[in-house]
Design a protein that fits this description.
heterotrimer, A mainly alpha (305), B alpha/beta (255), C mainly alpha (341), A: 305 residues, mainly alpha, two-stranded antiparallel ribbon, 11 helices, 75% helix, 3% strand, C: 341 residues, ABC transporter involved in vitamin B12 uptake, BtuC, 1% strand
Amino acid sequence: MTLFIEQCLNGLQFGLLLFLLAAGLTLVFGIMDLVNLAHGSLYMLGAYFAATFAAWTGSFVIGAVLAIIATLLVGMALEVIAMRRLYGRDHLDHVLGTFGLILFFDEAVRLIWGPGGLSLPVPAWLNRSIEILPGVQYSAYRFAIIIVTLAVAAFLYILVMRTRVGMLIRAGASNREMVGALGVNINLLYTLVFGLGAALAGLAGMIQAPILTVQIGMGENILILAFVITVIGGIGSIRGAFVAALLVGFIDTLGRAFFPQILVELLGRQAGSTAAPALSSMLIYILMAVILIVKPQGLFSANSR
Amino acid sequence: MTDALLKVDGLSKRFGGIVATDDLSLTVARGELHAIIGPNGAGKTTLITQLSGQLRCDSGRIQFAGEDITALPPHTRSLKGLARSFQITSLFLDLSVLDNVALAVQAHAGHSFHFWHDARKDDALRQPARAALERAGLSGRADSPAAALSHGEHRQLELAMALAGHPRMLLLDEPMAGLGPEESARMVAMLRALKDEVTILLVEHDMEAVFALADRITVLVYGRVIASGVPDDIRANAQVREAYLGDADKGGVHV
Amino acid sequence: MKFALTPRNLVTAALLIGLALLPLYVALTGDRFMLTLFTRIVILAMAAVSLNLILGYSGMMSFGHAAYLGLGGYTTAILSFEGVHSGFIQWPAAIAVSALFALAVGALSLRTRGVYFIMITLAFAQMAYYLASGMARYGGDDGLSLESRSTFAGLIDLSDKTTFYYLCLLLLFASIMLVWRLTNSRFGMVLQGVRSNETRMSAIGYPTFRYKLTGFVIAGTLCGLSGALIANHTDFVSPSMMFWTRSGDLIVMVVLGGMGTLFGPVFGALALLFLEQFLPALISTAVEPFNPAGAAKAGEYWQLVLGPLLLFVVLFARGGIDGMLRALSRRGADAERARHD
């Protein structure tokens, strides 16, 4: 039972982390109609920045804040230099152009930080267990992640639903011309939105840095998960991304933890343990296939084009 | 009514709160040119889209040649002889003019699971395509890319493609839209020649053309039929005048 | 069709002759490495040719094409591992497995459009990737080595590198021929119509889904065959050959060479693998005069150049290599006409 609660919390934590990535992706999708494969590179940069700045300043928190600001700036620069030229072109151009950017970023990171990868230790004050429920111990760092990401999700919700900028973002997701007609500086709005998405990706990378090793190509795996989430949630929908991220986080974590046992029960020891590793990593893709069969536009489609 | 080719009963379609088609009933007799007119936003294009099957209706029934086609997908309707043209030019712009029409011919020449023989040298496709181009007055442009044609020529190509399948009925969505006076006159002449061979449902803003061509006219306002009859009756109908007068100050149509 | 001596046709002919004569060059110079490199180019060109059928000719933006390369490869390797060495069984099996996978993926993904289609094909390819990683018996993440190359009852010996090269080249030419016939056939006209304007295609009476699905399966099948070739070429298969970035490479080849053109994918495969192979040396040479000590190291970072180069192609040279050759030919023709006038 304790294990189950712990795995649920892990699932929640992973889901929320994925939400940070997927939110930026779905915003950029929904508003600029841009498929950005290089989103995973921004996640990677966030992790590298965090590890570097934390080592320089000697403070985890200052390092984290600097890392987020740095990714925000890189994101905005990237939008102005490259992404802007891709708007209004077809998706194939986006895929290719941003694929090129992945190569560029991977190589740039190797040039700057070397091929070895970095590590960012969990700060001492978070490197312990806390009793979150009577009798249930949980990693303080992971618990902190849950709190921080929930706060960010709440901030995003307020930003998108309650502010003028958010109104423009929502309007932009459903009707681009209208926002232009309102006399809003579209270029600036796009740069800001892209920067926001980049900062969220950077935050996600920074958060993951102490859990995983910081290495080149770390964005490539998780990017696909983020895409799966945006597709399941419905492109352009923050709410959809939130629901889908939690769904994927839970299913992936719980699937890996318990699915092998279930399979062994069902199929017998031999067949179950043979099929388990492959099937449990495939779970979320199966989920995505099922959802797309039932709802080809995802769960919460912002623009039903 | 005898010899109805198309029969629409109680058709309805809403988009959210907006009623695009409201309990609409309509009959088009075989051989007639039936025009649909109405102010902007009356739901004329929505009606065409529902008839051709790109849009499902919420309720109601569509019968074509005595058969219920309400639930059929667009391609099946097209194969049954119900062809449509598009208001906004919808062509294969990167293919040649002849290819465009040949594709329309091919759609009606059985399945296309032929993998080996060069379709561009296939007389069974090319001859009828050339003939359709001829009738639409486009023979001279057969080998140009469709993208290179003028707007008026695009409308002619639309017509050629609709004709290529030897349809029993044509749904024409504003074939005159955006044409200059000379091109319009040419289109009217072409349609007049066509109406002897094929039943036509014509949605059109150009009143001069409509009254010159139509056997019957149906007037739509907010998705509902407010009048239907021969041109002289429609011209005299008070309700129609009112509907159009209400629209006239927006630079609408003059009856 | 008349064969005019345009730069485009000349370069294409030179490419084909070059490919055919490559073993001669290798025999004369003893440069075995070139034979290995070109065998790889030819096989990947075949995969790119298959992708071009759906991406270039029918506008289906499949982002999971490497899965078929992997499936074909794995089928071959697994059969070999289980003691079945005959190519007469391995290769048809590789083709059948890829065809079935393409049928399943296509049937599900072709119901969606646009970004959703890109993503769902990507996700299914990732599924194949994880499936391969999870097969502990067949090496899991570490991959699986082939005990021996496919045997063909003594008819041809694939362990002879020149023979194998010619077999690959033959199959590449056959694929190009197939795509040429297909795209000009009635079926191919439907695919091109779908690329151009799918709404209109269904409006004039085409049940587009079944044509798209057929195209999708043909492309997957052809790519599965090139997977059987690549497994024989490297004597090894691993999940990484199905990772999504590999699918990205295939797309790059098609676009770099020229989408929807017969020989574009071959140019693209050649260009990408040449860049991969020789860009490092090129960069080193370029850096040498400025920083002799760092020159060799600079070459290692060749992707720093390749990435922006891709972006550049997307932004400014959408027709790819074939498009440039075509423009060159057109300019030549214009000049010719001007001279005659």
